[in-house]
Amino acid sequence: MLKLPAAWSGSIFNRPSGHTRSWLYATICRVAALFLFSGVPFCRLPHTRRRAWIFTSFSFFWSLPLLLFEKATLTWHKISGKKIEKKLSALSKKEKRSHLAVDTDDEIIGYVVPVFRSSHLATQDLMETQEEVKEEGVGYVVMRNLFSRETDFKMKTVKKTRETSMRESAERLTLSKKMHEKAEFQKKMNPDSLTHPPEFIVKPRGQTVWEGKSLTLHCTVAGWPKPRVAWYKNNVLIDAKAHPEKYSAESQYNMHSLEIKNCNFSDTAEYGISALNVKGESSAFASVIIKRFKEGEEVIERPYGYSPEYGVTFNTAIIDKFDVSFGREGETMSLGCTVIVYPTVKRYQPEIVWYRNGVVLSPSKWVHMHWSGERATLTLVHLNKEDEGLYTLRVNTKSGFDTHSAYVFVRDADVEEEGVPVAPLDVRCHDANKDYVVVTWKQPAVEGSSSIMGYLIDRLEVGTHHWTQCNDTPVKYARFPVTGLIEGRSYTFRVRALNNAGVSRPSRASDTVVAMDPSDRARLRAGPSAPWTGMIKFTEEDPTVGVVPGPPTDLAVTEATKSYVVLSWKPPIQRGHEGVMYYVEKCLVGTDTWQRVNTGMPVKSPRFALFDLAEGKSYSFRVRSCNSAGVAEPSEETGATTVGDRLDLPSVPGPVVPIRNTDTSVVVRWGASKEVKNLVGYYIEVSINGSGVWVPCNNKPVKGARFVCHGLNTEDKCVFRVKAVNAAGYSGSTAESEACIVQASIAVPSPPTGVTLLERVRDYMVLGWQAPSNTGGADIRGYYLDYRTVKDGVTSKWHELNLQAVTGTSYKVTDLKENKFYQFQVRAFNQAGISEASIPTVTLECKEWTVAVPGPPRGLRVQEVRKDSMVLLWELPTFNGRSPVTGYYVDYKEENGKWRCFQERSTKHTYMQLSGLQEGVSYRLRVHAKNLAGVGGASKPTDAILAETRPGTNEIVVDVDDDGVISLIFECSDLKEDSQFVWSKNYEAFTDTSRLTIQTAGGKSRAIFNDPSLDDLGIYSCVVTNTDGVSASYTLTEEGLKRLLDISRDHQFPIIPFKSEMAIELQEKGRVRFWAEVAKFTSNCQVEYVFNDNIVHEGKKYTVNFNKTTGIIEMFMDSLEVTDEGTFTFNLVDGKATGRTSLVLIGEEFAELQKKSEFERAEWVRRQGPHFVEYLSFEVTPECDVHLKCKVGNIKPATEIAWFKDGIEIEEDDEDAKKIGKSDEVLTFDIGKLVIKSEKAQRKKKPETEESPSKPKISKKDAGVYEVKLKDERGKDKTLLNLTDAGYQAVLNEVFRVIANSSTELKIVSTEHGIILYSFVVHYIEDLRVGWLHKESKISHSDRVQCGVTGEQLWLKINEPTEKDKGKYAIDIFDGQGSVKRVLDLSGQVWEEAFEEFKRLKAAAIAERNRARVVGGLPDVVAIQEGKSLNLTGNVWGDPVPEVSWMKNEKPLVCDEHYTLKFEHGKFASITISAVTTTDSGKYALLVKNKYGTEAGAFTVSVYMPDDEAEKK
Known about the structure:
This protein has 1513 residues and is mainly β. Helices cover 13% and strands 41% of the residues. Strands 52, 53, 54, 56, 57 and 58 form a six-stranded antiparallel beta sheet that branches. Strands 7-14-13-9-10 form a five-stranded mixed beta sheet, with no helix packed on it. A five-stranded mixed beta sheet has the order 18-25-24-20-21, with no helix packed on it. Strand 74 (1058-1066) and strand 75 (1072-1078) form a beta hairpin. The radius of gyration is 50 Å and the shape is extended. The chain starts with a strand and ends with a helix.
């Protein structure tokens, strides 16, 4: 019986019974429809899952918002009447991904469906948490009692009313509508479906907040392609990036939000969001109201930070702030700020907290803190590099907090000896035990004059004054285990760095650490136990004295470097009451000899460090425990541990980018190290560009990839580099950054000036302005314009004109109203921000100017007058018309002639060269400007100009002098006293004077090209002032520039060209040939052979030759000696031309060439006797057989050939001698195939008489050093192949390659259990890595999906496949370097055929497994004496239980007095023949039959008489 408390009045359970059942019936219909809609087969769910599914679906869609609306206590009465009360919470315990909507009183008012998760995913999450929900949800308790089979629930048939029927019908229609909406939503959210316009799934809601608070508007938009959104305030676009202090917009996974920070009264507006894609646009709006406090108004919500305890809101101001500080080791530094908290409240003080790098500081020996009530002071006593970092003062009040931060730099103290490193830092102790502790530290920033060789660790026992060095050999790692401590004593440690110049000063001492058991330390930290009760109890225990402890457990190698190895283990479980100590033993891998390491002194701690191990060797370790009773058995030994460093140096950080910050600091960014483990941090170094002196910016490693380097000098040009550091050491330094000048970063520009009206029409105006005089140190990126209206002298508020910045200095203001008055102002912006507004314009009336076309050009002038050409220049028109000027037309006319246009198309330039004129004819010229509206009026014509070339007229001449300098020369004979040569390019004044150098002397002017390039192409003109139009021009084209550069090069560098520079060639017997080939020369060309500035001549050592027919120069040397290291040169002289080619042979290059020469000579000598043409190597055949082979030459029958393995010759009677072969001067050694562990196991199982296969196999025992030697009276030779370690691994990799490439394409076969994908390889070894992939994801082994190998078959079994198993499968086989993939697409027809075959085989297997059969119990022949009774029982099997019948001589038997036929338990069929006679002899059969098949168990009965038996005897 279910009883509900009165608090549930009005809920669904207090409805009339008929209504309640009808409601429940409709809900169940909805749940069933949900199952059909989501595609989950309900019948396949287990019973508990069905109930959970009903509950979760019930509560998810309908019940949860109603059932959880009211809090109540549910009382459940069992049939026995015993009452159990359980208070149920409305929320789950863990509240995972809570989608419940609650109001201000934490009452649940609804359920929020996650928009971007489809229903089946949400349902799946609910099913996964059903075990938690079913213990807490009220709905589950209700549904369990409604649907449980054990509940004694009686159903009544109630006649439905018309109202109930109509309501159920309406609910079914609602459910159908929701299903349709869900289908449409999933269709829209599917990227593969057709595109559709944006749609707001969740629209932003209007909000009302108090002034000073922040609010966030949220919405969710669906659409494909993904819509782009924009936020608006009163239909004005919001630029969140331009106002980050006010707005913050985010978009993630189609969920968009706009945060409005620190709201004020002006933020009251209608906010909208617009979503746009190629299919359309959609918008949504929400109203935001900002409430302001009034005097005397009682409000529930107080301003942010209001303290109800004191009734005020505390405000904090930090003044007199400490700045970036610099100190030196050993000094004392104080940091302080003045803190003002207002209003002042008696007996209230704020909380002052100091931080260093985000870690709270506490008073200590090195740190002192003081708070006077107004000023907070932090004093750092005896500075050390550990004190470097970012210091933060935080002032906590009841209304919030305020902070101030600045960096403190600590420089190293002066070193006592030049070149030694500085002291390490941050020494710490870890893993302290009874006689053992691990000491770590950080490497210093400065290594000194040479790299740090290692570190020395010192210890000091507390209470003494003598430091003891812990290690004799310096350690490279910044980590060292210290042993030999005395239990119960306290120690401190320090570290010193060592390089070639000496030892550094010691670091700051570490904190004190006590050598004691960690459990004792934990017990001491826990504090005192419960107070003593005054009662002591004694219990008698079995004596444990004399008990030998058990072996230690969990032995492992925790650290392994080339300097030491650290072992750790757990104490034995059986150890008695007395202390236990330990002996450590080591064994070199490959031997069986165990050596005790600490024979003289057993250790007390379950930690031990082993030193003086051979680097590169592998060891195993074990530990024995001991006490006064004896030594225990050894622990399990560790695996093989190779002595060597496990931690690699960090990789070099990424490129360094410096950014200007202030006059004394630079922000440095860099790329993090990609390959690094246990990164400690980075050191940044700075250098004045070109000085080569590097100084550290930080003396304490910093993490992250950004650092502000302070303390730099203004206007210094600095470069930076970074290096990473971890326990293994330093990485290499990065490349130098680009040079950065130390100066303040950019600022906002000054306001633009000269805002004027350029054009106006009825509904728009064109404004122009001048760029700011001060750009703020950065390029101007654009301009923003504001406008305001003016009516009767009263101005309105300023409004934004353009949301997108204007890049030019003019702007067309549209959508204005005719005959209205406006004022405008302009703001410029750069990378730093937006400038102040310009001075507003005068009041401008918007009305149309009547002229649309541009005005006439002005300032026409003519120069370079020749007999057939002249050049006309002009200036821009004053008025451009309605649109900008797009071109110009030039008209000309002869004297008393008509005006004609000179060109067909307009020109954009303000100059034009008129050619094709008639000599002696006078011309007048004029110019028209045009725009989009049309062609404007003509300019004022020029005076008549006679086309003639005046006497003495000169043209600009191009000159290339002997030094290759290219210049333009113009001479003037009519030069006056104040005349000047004015040069221009493209008839404009020079803007880049670095391109040309003008030299004028007398009547000649020279324009010299400083660095001729394509940038210099154009028209160069020169005008002489105060003359009668003396001018000329020269057009420099790309082709002309190329020709001039070639001439310049020939003049400047007259050299003899080489077709081939000097090269070197090794010839037979190690002879060296130096040669070069000359491209162009005469018969007078002479060659000088030079070695190290000394001329050499032909003789015994050198042979020289110059073939003037081919131009090849040669010099030969029979051999290279040590004295031949240097520079070889061929100097050529051919008249004025010279040539030189050199070859430098020094250092490693010379040594390598000399080595090759000697090798060639030795090879020549070697080839005179028996020798190896091809040295010993290995090959793997396609069958995976491994052969060693080498090719020999110049051998005789008497030549001795000997094979060796590991230095031992293989004799003829050795087993390995059978593997040696020879054919056609090729020696082979057949190793065989790699043996598999499974094959080894099979060999062990074979009987001794069975012979193992004769085919050779390769295994680890075949690894070794193989050698072949040749020898006869002419000489000897040998070759060697190392097949150990790397060599053996190379063989394995080649085998892997052959196996991987031999794999067949994936094939598929169906079985009664599922589908098998398989591929065959030529051979398989256990070390081969094979992986299976499904849809590019690795397949994990499970009971349903299994992979394995059978023989040479690699297979993947998919048991009981489903639709989820469709897709692309791939097998990934390791080939020694990469991998080989074989892919099969298990989908479409392939899937259908395989799946149908699986179902057929499964059905056949079921039929075979369940068909009727006789499984035993019946003999083949029965002989029985006449008169006796015969009883036979047959075992029968079948599902369903088969039908049973008996046959005699193929005729059915009927049960009667003679034949008794029984079938019991569905398994046993028996026949009893009483008093058999001879007529009972014959063939009998037990016939069983069911729907899967029929089977007969036949037997023969032979009845004999006693007399016959006697005769037989």
